[in-house]
Amino acid sequence: MPRITRAALIQASNVDAPSTNGSLAKIKQAMIDKHVSLVKQAADRGAQITCLQEIFYGPYFCAEQNPRWYETAEPIPDGPTIKLMMQQAKKHSMAMIVPIYEVEMPGLYYNTAAVIDEQGKYLGKYRKHHIPHCHPGFWEKFYFTPGNLGYPVFNTRFGKIGVYICYDRHFPEGARELGLNGAEIVFNPSATVAGLSEYLWKLEQPAHAVANQYFVGAINRVGTEKPWSIGEFYGQSYFCNPRGQIMAQASRDKDEVVVADLDLDMIQEVRNVWQFYRDRRPESYEKIARS
């Protein structure tokens, strides 16, 4: 019997523009409310797994360096947002990937995605490994400690899920680790703007899908976020298959739920043809292992 998983990606614009005196709690709650509605849309379309965008409950605040945003971080899984999404997952019988700003202890923060199964059970989390601090408006080292939990893969009824977050996608090493750990679907929630990375958007992640022979779900938010206006988040969230073919894609400028049926049996079919895992030569990759 075919193993078909219906998966969804949610891309969305920010609800309230942050201001110097704006209420961070209000901004955050508005985005949570918006996403609860979008999660329902995914469920109504039959999604069995749904992934939200990077730090879904706020703007991309790394456009400035201001400690006020530390207030928006929460523990995982005991914070209110993950508890709410556990309830939503159970309500809709849907596994979820929920990226938020995580606080482990005062002064120690991560860019993290929690993974929840269809019964509302917390399965674990992935912490973003690669932290950029090199382009105007992407001051992430001010906010995030590099991830320290490796490249876990989470078993759900609907497939084995791996997570990579935004800037991670520029590094093939972690994408391969996820494949070696058994991932069948890798989700990459992102926040990236036109003029910087758009030309890579449909190159790197299909290449990861081909090299590692799994499905990829790539998410980018939409809109321009004031007061920073660092550029247009260009959306175009998509799914691609183990052959690197884009299966479904969102627009570049509006809130959208992208849904696709992923035939997980294709993974075995592709690996029967392209024996990349058999033909790897890890013992010869000396600099990668040593550096």
Write a concise synopsis of the structure shown.
With 291 residues, the chain is an alpha/beta fold.
Explain how this protein is built.
The protein is α/β, with parallel strands linked by helices. It has one domain: 4-Layer Sandwich (Nitrilase/N-carbamoyl-D-aminoacid amidohydrolase), CATH 3.60.110.10. Helices cover 25% and strands 26% of the residues. Strands 5-4-3-2-1-14 form a six-stranded mixed beta sheet. A hairpin with a 5-residue loop joins strand 12 and strand 13. Helix 1 packs parallel to helix 2. The longest helix is centred in the N-terminal third of the chain and has 21 residues. The chain is globular and about 60 Å long. It starts with a strand and ends with a helix. The model has no long low-confidence stretch (mean pLDDT 95).
Instruction: Give the N-to-C terminal Cα separation.
Output: 45 Å
CATH architecture: 4-Layer Sandwich
Order of strands side by side in the largest beta sheet?
5-4-3-2-1-14
Strand content: 25-35%
Number of helices: 8
Unreliable segments (pLDDT under 50, ≥5 consecutive)? Answer: none
Choose one word for the global shape: globular
CATH topology: Nitrilase/N-carbamoyl-D-aminoacid amidohydrolase
Largest sheet report: 6 strands, mixed
Order of helices and strands: EHEHEEEEEHEHHEEEEEEHHH
